[in-house]
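Hey team,

Filing this mostly as a record. A colleague (T.K.) asked me to run one chain through the structure pipeline before their review meeting, and I want the input and output archived in the tracker in case anyone asks later how it was produced. No errors, nothing strange. Just documentation.

Input sequence:
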Amino acid sequence: MAFNHLPAGVHDALAPLSVTPVTHSVPMAKNHRPDRPPTDLRSGPAPGAVLDRLASGPSRASRITHTEHLPPRGGRHAVWPDRIRPEVLAAVRAAGIEHPWAHQARAAEHALDGDSVVVATGTASGKSLAYLMPVLSTLLDGAEAPNGRGATALYLAPTKALAADQCRSVKELSQPLGHSVRAAVHDGDTPFEEREWIRQYANYVLTNPDMLHRSILPSHPRWSSFLKALKYVVVDECHTYRGVFGSHVAQVLRRLRRLCARYGASPVFLLASATAAEPAVAARRLTGLPVVEVADDASPRGELVFALWEPPLTELHGERGAPVRRTATAEAADLLADLTVQGVRSVTFVRSRRGAELISLIAQERLAEVDRSLAGRVAAYRGGYLPEERRALEHALHSGELLGLAATNALELGVDVSGLDAVVIAGYPGTRASLWQQAGRAGRSGQGALAVLIARDDPLDTFLVHHPEALFDRPVESTVLDPDNPYVLAPHLCAAAEELPLTEEDLALFGPATEDLLPQLEAAKLLRRRTRAWHWTRRERAADLTDIRGQGGRPVQVVEAGTGRLLGTVDAGAAHTSVHEGAVHLHQGLTYLVRSLDLEDSVALVERATPTYTTMARDTTSISVLETDTEVPWGDGRLCYGSVEVTNQVVSFLRRRVVTGEVLGETKLDLPPRTLRTRAVWWTVTEDQLDRAGIVPEILGGALHAAEHASIGMLPLFATCDRWDIGGVSIPLHPDTLLPTVFVYDGHPGGAGFAERAFHTARAWLTATRQAIASCECDAGCPSCIQSPKCGNGNDPLHKRGAVRLLTVLLEGAPVERPKDAGGAAGA
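Output structure:
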């Protein structure tokens, strides 16, 4: 029997809610008034006092396991390069900014010199102004050109919200410049009638990589005048382009560079990130160009108080009688309500869309008991909302109409929500980079800020709140991406060939794997070689071959059965687990039950309901080895890395009580299996090792299963991923290895670099896994060590002591690791 742990993209369920400087990247003060002395930071609620009020009460104080105080810091000024247009300088001064921070001036100087540059300074350190100054100045120069359209610039953001927010800021800043700067958002929400005007007249277009991939590049003849004049490409929040998504974006940018060259342009790339390790290396992988790094942050910051918070154990017992902690969801909802009562402007980040809805709903109920008017000042914000709903929420947050928001990471990325005093993070978000991004949403006007990380009942969360050095004494993760992944590269070669026939001169641009892939694409009758070029052969659009976010198909529309009203969408990869028949679906505080899921038409019909439970899908997984790339002896055992095929099927769902997580029942489902070819790391043990560890056949399955769960939970400390990006399978006798084997695999076609990173850090990774299990205070295993929230086998069997003994004997044979570049495993 195989025991499995599925990656998500597949799971958006509530129950297991998972709900960073370049050495210490912390919230920085925004430089609206850089001429002020650092002691003149805007006063707000003292973060320490806010935390004291949150922790008041007989049991609350004991929930804080650690408090980190990051002191305020002054800033260092410089002067703008003399090539910045005086009109732009005047506009910036009119906005209250007299002098730039030193890193802003340095980045602008490089941009004007024609050097691609990455600005990797802290949250709210003024990175936007660093790239806007040379962009606006160049656009103004172009506006005075006697012929043609003049200079243009392209801005890429990972989310629609960030692009819309940046467009507002650009329009405000450039208002004194008149019509010389014509900024416009071009995304999926842009009305059709506006798109033609944008193509013809906008000189600063703000969009996202998805729109660039699906719309702009395939229609490049209609964008020819824009591309011909393209001087700058801004890539904001570039650290988010990692894994499979980052690999896709890297190829989209290469396609953009190729078409620009076709029209005679060679744009300079300006990248920005508050949380990036080795930012120049990551930026070079992403763009394929040499990039200058500006990482010396000269901006001031206010005080940050960062608390680690562990919910208490309850009297309830979960699966196999394990003790159950209060959920991070319930705890976060209470803190959100308490902060709102105090008048503290805050945002609560949560991993899942359902979690955001539920935290908002619980907080509103708590607030209504205090003052009915307060309930309307808290809301949810997540992906899947209709465009008008998102815009209304963003406006309400900007205006202060909303005091508190429960949000997914849709609000993590740079949206300028000035004046927030506190951030609550419901569960470790998967990476230190993301943790510091979320914490940085508070204190953005220079005031002191409070951040609280609430631990989920999860091995990694429990480890972190009791080992604060793992958060506060380590740098953020390296950005892992692999543009040469054939599952990524192949569809982009097809898209590039449709845009402009591929020639041998293009091979170097797309990477070393291109030459080997082209014959395979010819054999598949996707490309045809004529004379010296490869051409796209199909009638359909090549850009439709791939979804660059790896969501596996068109989104499923969630439709209200009685009215036919579209409520929103769910990613195709998450549909089997989140909108299966009988699933509870939350939307803006309202609860629905899924009546049916039509996979062929990608529609889920829902109806209003008021269940007292939430739902979580169960699944089964099998795995087969396709090819072993590397094999290393670990004593008698083996550590391996290679290609695998994973077959998964959602087979049932659990009903759980909302606040306690108590299981109320299980219902069978009939959904088709799905297969995934990906990359995995796996390890085997021999009979002799099992004998030395005292592991008899009766406990072997439980020991392997427990070690698998815990190792998946701990991997985000060593790879730029979270446990929802990876999956696992354990089996006492695997047919391919003929030995007891544990697999951990990437949850993306072709791999994402996570399993390879695990292979290269296996000794440290599995040592931490053993420590996390052994140090847990429970007797037989619990969600804080070996139980998984998404286990397809209902966390049965599990054997805690057997897992510790198994990992001990495995690690006895582990070779000493040599230091390795964190991003090198994924390849460039």
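Quick notes for T.K.: Residues 1-42, 819-828 have pLDDT under 50 and may be disordered. DSSP finds 26 helices and 31 strands in the chain.
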